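Worked example 2:
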Amino acid sequence: MADGYLDDKWVQGDTNVDGYTIWHWYLMDVFVYFSHNLVTLPPPCWVNAAHKHGVKVLGSFITEWDEGKTICDKLLSTKSLLIHVLSGCLSLLLLWDLMAGCKNSPGILNMKRK
């Protein structure tokens, strides 16, 4: 699954049958759907597959590289802005949680700053 999720961008799957195949779900408690985008929410194919095997699925919010530094500078510029942005992110994740029918908190926060 290195180099990003490319074959799973289609909700109904792709011709590549191994596009999102995990053989050892029983070894996992949590699956983190991660990419190098600011916000990444797992598509239904991953959520359905994980939940079929009793595995929780997390999306991600990540800031990295120069663009991430700019975002962090803005997010961390004032305490009130930081609280506002983080509460907005939490609200979006909870909304996604409800829409996807999940019963777990679907988020991971990864902030990198020099």
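The first helix runs from residue 44 to 52. The two ends are 28 Å apart (CA to CA).
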